[in-house]
Specification:
Shape: globular
Number of strands: 7
Strand order of the largest sheet: 2-3-4-1-5
Largest sheet: 5 strands, parallel
Oligomer: single chain
Number of helices: 37
Helix content: 55-70%
Distance between the termini: 28 Å
Strand content: under 5%
């Protein structure tokens, strides 16, 4: 399966997913699709499940991306089960955004209206109406944007062209060519490729070539069917496989006359694959279909295993071996994914077992428990690990929220789930999505549930982050009344702190000091460490940039020390940033720079995008004080792009906004409008990685392959130890088969690693890998291997 790497639209290289398996055939479809873009700005690839629409779209986009100034961008919609989240998915996966929380479509249009790019929207059929509205707006207002969509049906927008993705070319069993001519058929080449991955010693011979060609005819050239069939060569000969599939199709397609023949074929193959499994594996397949996106073994065991004949570990190994489950490796973590078509099939079978409701509830309960653990363990040393884990589980968290929000008996679980995740939503800059879920859960749950107070408080906080005081203040007031009625002292302390922050945002320092100070005392009395750290940071900042900077610095130092004692990064980073703010007002630019750079290093570990936006802005002010005007302008550009990405703005914080505007005006005056705009736009176009490197003044040098276009924003991703080992063997002229034998791993695994190396280094050939390795050995170029 293709996994989507999320990136920002300002990074000119695009964010196309790596194509981790060899690509066979489709030259005609690629050429046709590219030709249609000369006539139409929207092209939709349509066809049944498993026919290869996604991989074709990725290949077309990879071929065309250099034709667009802003390259090609990929948005995966497969795991959305709510059309209302389509715009949020686009904003998140492209790194777009803006201060407005209510005008997501307008935000996308505004940010893309001057772009020249190819936007790939993958798996649109289940949210097609929302996708069509988005695409229609892009066509109206964004003249440089082209859209390539994949769907089982067309979008139905004006000016759309459609390419029906056909099955791969298959032989005619009545007129088979000579055995040595089998390679003329793309379906046969694909089968041979997958067969060798499953059984490395597989070879096409004069004895089995006709059976091979007849088999590919039976499979109707469907790539997914070919994948499923090829792995059966581990237990059957090619001739046996051909005979059995021919028999099964005659039997299984009877009675399905209403479905198109090629859909009958795929369904028959999936049916056969399913029926060949042991009952343990069948039930595990059905149960694991409740997962959205990928999942790990622990989740599978908790959700799909019940100690009643379902051995999940054994079932997972079996289903991976039979190409039902896709195995994905990210560093030391292994995750699994059901291809979309096989997941739909599994959900049908789950219904036949009568287990749909029970499995969805178990799925929801597991991820609610995971979210509760995250909230309970957040103040501790594993914050980066938690953020990474929840990023992997984001699709499952959405699915769990959807189930909990829709159930009359799961309202409390829904409220706990959405509020336990509030730190995660904020760090990821998913403020609008957080508000979407909070609004839905609060609207659909009983007014008597005790969890409502915290949900209202968190809802008010996200409204505040987006400058929506019209929603934040009434919500805070209602939550305060409810907390008082319930006698919830901890929530009353949090609500007092938020009222204090509102006052601070509105430049009312005395009231902010009073409320934040009172909250700090309450948190200390109740032993609420998270609230104590937040209050120390808030009160230190309010006092520090107000009339008592020494007291402010003492409070911030206490916050830094307390968080360090617990191995905590989040509040430590904000306290370091706040310390820089105070030092700036005392004309101690060097001290301020050290503090804010430390804040930025910590924020990078958490990928805390709101925090990074604050730090980049502050570093621009410091550069201004140091009379490094070009650096200051560029840093303001980087922070501007990130403010947009998290849909916030400096203007939401009155004291901060005034200083921001003053520095911006003075930097612009010092450079002149033309030079300022040039540096500012350069900053806006930086990738997040490059922006933080630039802000920290880290030097990275990359050897660019001959003939590659210059791109100051592109840096190589680090190679893993295994990838570096394989790169060394590639440089020696070894084939994938040689490497597999040398390392005692599957040839298909080697192919995946080689493709990852090409993608990470932005290369297109093995010769470039060899040149890069040679450069590493002579010291020419950055060492991007993992340490």
């Amino acid at each position: 399966m293709v996994s989507t790497a999320k990136a920002r639209v300002r990074e000119s290289a695009g964010n196309l997913p790596a194509d981790v398996t060899s690509f066979v055939g489709r030259r005609r479809e690629i050429t046709l699709t590219k030709r249609l873009f000369a006539e139409s700005r929207v092209v939709t690839l349509t066809g049944p499940g498993g026919v290869g629409k996604t991989r074709l779209a990725v290949r077309v986009a990879a071929n065309m991306r250099r034709s667009f100034r802003d390259k090609a961008w990929f948005v995966e919609l497969e795991n959305l089960d709510d059309g209302a989240l389509v715009l949020d998915a686009v904003i998140e996966q492209l790194g777009l955004g803006g201060p407005s929380s209510a005008a997501s479509l307008e935000t996308i249009v505004d940010q893309l209206k001057n772009r020249e790019m190819l936007l790939v929207l993958d798996n649109c059929e289940h949210v097609i109406e929302d996708v069509a509205l988005l695409v229609d707006a892009l066509m109206r207002w964004c003249p440089g944007v082209r859209v390539l969509a994949t769907s089982r049906q067309s979008l139905g927008v004006a000016g759309e062209s459609n390419v029906v993705v056909p099955p791969m070319q298959v032989p005619d069993p009545g007129h088979l060519p000579p055995a040595e001519a089998y390679e003329q058929f793309s379906s046969v080449r694909l089968f041979v490729d997958r067969a060798k991955a499953a059984v490395p010693e597989f070879e096409v011979t004069a004895d089995n070539a006709e059976a091979l060609m007849r088999l590919c005819h039976h499979l109707d050239g469907n790539p997914l069917a070919i994948e499923l069939a090829a792995v059966r060569l581990r237990s059957l000969s090619l001739q046996q496989l051909e005979e059995r599939i021919a028999e099964r199709y005659d039997l299984l397609t009877e009675g399905r006359r209403g479905a198109p023949p090629r859909q009958q074929t795929l369904r028959a193959l999936i049916d056969w694959s399913y029926e060949l499994l042991e009952e343990r594996d069948r039930r595990a397949w059905a149960r694991m279909s409740v997962f959205s996106g990928s999942f790990d073994l622990t989740a599978a065991e908790h959700v799909a295993g019940d100690g009643k004949g379902v051995d999940i570990l054994t079932a997972v190994h079996s289903l991976v071996d039979k190409s039902v489950l896709m195995r994905e490796e990210d560093g030391a973590e292994v995750r699994y994914r059901l291809p979309h078509t096989l997941r739909d099939y599994g959900l049908d079978k789950l219904g036949e077992y009568g287990e749909t409701s029970r499995m969805r509830h178990r799925h929801c309960a597991f991820f609610a428990e995971l979210s509760a653990r995250f909230a309970a363990e957040w103040i501790g040393p594993d914050q980066p690990g938690w953020v990474q884990r929840l990023r992997h589980e984001q699709d499952n968290l959405r699915s769990a929220l959807r189930h909990a929000a829709e159930g009359s008996e799961t309202g409390g679980m829904a409220l706990r789930l959405v509020t336990d995740l509030w730190q995660y939503w904020g760090i990821r800059g998913l403020n609008a999505e957080a508000r979407h879920w909070l609004d839905e859960v609060l609207d659909n749950t009983s007014r008597d549930l005790p969890e409502r107070v915290k949900a209202m408080r968190v809802s008010a906080w996200f409204a505040l982050l987006q400058g929506d005081l019209g929603r934040a203040l009434p919500t805070l007031e209602r939550a305060t009344v409810l907390a008082t009625q319930r006698g919830d002292e901890v929530e009353r302390a949090y609500l007092a702190l938020l009222h204090g922050l509102v006052a601070f945002f509105q430049d009312d320092q005395p009231r902010g000091t009073e409320l934040a100070g009172g909250a700090l005392e309450r948190f200390r009395r109740s032993g609420e460490l998270a609230g104590e750290l937040w209050s120390l940071h808030a009160l230190g900042l309010i006092k520090g940039i107000g009339d008592d900077p020494d007291a402010g610095l003492r409070l911030l130092a206490e916050c830094i020390q307390l968080s360090a004692e617990h191995g905590e990064l989040y509040w430590r980073s904000y306290a370091q940033w706040a310390t820089a703010q105070v030092q700036m007002r005392r004309d101690r630019a060097d001290r301020a720079e050290n503090s804010v750079k430390e804040a930025l290093r910590l924020q990078r570990k958490l990928d805390n995008r709101l925090g990074i936006a604050f730090s980049l802005d502050t570093l621009a002010w410091i550069a201004h004080r140091q009379q490094r005007f070009e650096r200051a302008a560029r840093l303001l550009g980087t922070s501007s792009a990130l403010w947009d990405a998290v849909r916030s703005a400096p203007g939401f914080w009155a004291r901060f906004a005034g200083d921001h505007d003053e520095h911006l005006m003075q930097i612009r005056t010092a450079l002149g409008p033309e030079a300022f705009d040039e540096q500012y736009e350069h900053g806006r176009e930086m990738s997040l990685t490059h922006a933080v490197d630039y802000a920290l003044e880290l030097k990275r040098h990359t050897r660019r392959p001959a003939g590659a276009e210059s791109d100051d924003n592109v840096h190589p991703m680090p190679l893993t130890r295994r990838e570096r080992q394989i790169a060394d063997l590639v440089s020696e002229g070894r084939t994938n088969k040689d490497i597999a034998e040398n390392l005692v791993i599957a040839q298909r695994t080697v192919e995946g690693h080689v493709q990852n190396i090409l993608t990470k280094l932005d290369f297109t050939s093995r010769a470039q890998i060899a040149g890069w390795v040679a450069g590493q050995r002579t010291g020419d170029g950055a060492d991007t291997s993992a340490r």
